[in-house]
Amino acid sequence: MSELHEVAPEPVQMAVPGIPPSLPSSGTTHPYLMKSIDFLRTTQQYSVIPFSAFSALHVASVVVGPALFGPEVGNDMISVGRELYHVPLVELGILVSACVHVVSGIAVNLLRQYYNYVKYGKAKRKKNQNRTKLETAMKITRSPNDVEVRDIDEGLGGISSIVGAGSRPSITSRFLGLSPLAFSGYVLLVLLGGHVYYERVAPLLVDGDSSMIDMTYIAHGLQQKFWEAFTALNLLVATGCYHMLVGWNRYLRRFSLRARKNTYLTLGVLSALCCASLLRVRNLDVFAAAAHRFDIYLAQ
């Protein structure tokens, strides 16, 4: 008995036939990877604030104002806005804000793919990704408006989620491995790139400034190729509003059923206002000299 003494407990690992040894946690083997993802995610969230402020002002000028009060009011709002966001440093800040948001978002997605590869292995990567995206934690309380869906990869959960049928896994998550928010961001990147080129870059290349750009420029495009311009501009507004509204819901952690309903309502109202704005702007008279200049812009 005198030889017995207390020792510190130590874990014992024993190999069990048929069961592979557990893999080390990727969080401990790759701490810098997790820190990089967290840093890029935070950068992505905060970098978009200046561009969101500009977008809200721009939507008010070209969508809400013309639809409710007429194209002339829209032109006045564009003139006021131009004095604000065409200041060199302000315009540069908006551009940097958008670029940082896009680059950090792409980097986060790539690092997450690599993280899943390291954690699960090549054979199990796709299986575990799909399982993670489909896991939904729900908290049901007395009021149906308090139902929360914590799976941020579902976007708005589909129309079925607001009528009590439950949210559905998004098509983009199942087939592309992208959340609806990320997918809308990539689509918006293409649409917004074309919009910026024809609205800002092309006039700069031709005249050195974009002072001639107002509602008559949009009217000329609608009068020349109505369905192409009408569809592209509506798609730009709908995709941009969806991306910003869902992104802010995610940032503010607003996942309740009430928040989703309000987001759908806001998207519907803005889409309707966009259609009304374009239909009213189409009737503007465009002088021949301005139309000729606009044709040069569009030909760039």
UniProtKB/TrEMBL annotation:
Pfam families per UniProt: MCP1_TM
GO term, biological process aspect, one: mitochondrion organization
Keyword Repeat applies: no
Organism of origin: Pichia membranifaciens NRRL Y-2026
Protein name: Mitochondrial adapter protein MCP1 transmembrane domain-containing protein
Residue intervals of the Mitochondrial adapter protein MCP1 transmembrane domain: 54-127, 191-261
Classification via InterPro entries: MCP1 (IPR039960), MCP1_TM (IPR012472), SQR/QFR_C/D (IPR034804)
Sorted UniProt keywords: Membrane, Transmembrane, Transmembrane helix
Transmembrane annotation, as ranges: 48-69, 89-111, 175-198, 232-252
The UniProt record lists the keyword Transmembrane: yes
A GO term from the CC aspect: mitochondrial outer membrane
